[in-house]
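Hi support team,

I submitted a single chain yesterday and got back a structure, but I'm not sure I'm reading the token output correctly. Could someone confirm the output below corresponds to the sequence I sent? I've pasted both exactly as they appear in my results page.

Thanks,
R.
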Amino acid sequence: MTTPPDPVPPPVSPGRGDEQRVALHSPEFAADPHRAYQEMRERYGALVPVELAPGVPATLVLGYRAALRILNDPDRFPADPRTWEKTVPADCPVLPVLQWRPNAPRSSGAAHARYRGATTAALAGVDLHALRGTVERFAVPLINSFCSSGSADLVGQYAFPLTFEVINAVLGCPPEISERAAAATAAIFDGVDSEKGNQMFGEAVQELVASKSTEPGDDVTTRLLRHAAGLDETEMTHQVVALYGVGMGPMQSLIINTLCLILTDDRFADEMLGGVLPTRDALDDVLFDDPPLPNASVTYPRQPVLIDDVWLPAHQPVVISLAGCNNDPEIRAGDHSGNRSHLAWGAGPHACPAQDTAYLIAQEAIDQLLDALPDLRLAVPVQDLTWRPGPLHRTLAELPVAFPPTPPLPIL
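Hi R., thanks for writing in. Yes, this is the structure output for that exact sequence:
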């Protein structure tokens, strides 16, 4: 069935001027995004004019049903940003995250299907039982490095290095390459010298791909190289870039955001004291309210499209607020324990293909820590925690905790 054409747009969309755009890159937004979503919804409805960076306009989608309509319509809303890229400067802080790459997240049509098939097959080869042991193998020495001191920053001393090691193991990345990749990833997500970080990151991943061509292993990179899609060197590099970037940033944020919830929400704190740790429930709660990528699944309409009486401009980013849509009053129904209808993994043809892997890594990382330090508590008032600014991620700069000094765990 042929899709009917959209109505002809007016020359100017009234009431959507740049002067009214909400700055998603501001510290104020990072400090209290839920209040910002509520205020945006009250003022604009489901579709909000925003800035991703100074002078970089976009539309933020806060309506759950509008989001599903967009995510399941890749013909009108492709993920390929190349036309948009021509309109932003090379040093734009969000460009390294959003720019076109020959990989599944930034492609459409046959190219997307080819890249997606290779990535899905490579991830399917991950042994989840063995992965649980991999997380434990890296978690225990990290816990031992601070357990006798009675305090720690769980971002810098636990979640970041643990995620770093586990993702490297999954990709088969040797230490001398992974150290540079980790530094580059931090620069990109912080938006500090992101152009240089993007270059460093690409160079490190190129070395990883080259090393697996001569020294293959039982890892995701090797399986991508051997896939029937026949990925060339450039395509290989960008498949690994996508896996590495998403694994490093959002994965550690999922661990940290969930630990923060467990330590500050009485629902989970009470059950911890009772010896029952509902880690999976806490993870799902975070994926509803504070997902690591609260604003993501970016698409670029091929032509002006009318959604909910608002014209979305051609080739301008349409950003799905996964956190905002999850809390859309039209679909939100109070307690969502055990409810996994959230959009934190995306939806449609670009939904995250690594959900099972991500759940396992995050759950095992949290369980290892809380099994070792059951009396863990937040070391500062919750209002003193600082969220890193940025339009697309949601993560703490630090998570300081205190606990009774504990002897080191045995290393198996």
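A quick pointer for reading it: The radius of gyration is 21 Å. Let us know if anything else looks off.

Best,
Support desk
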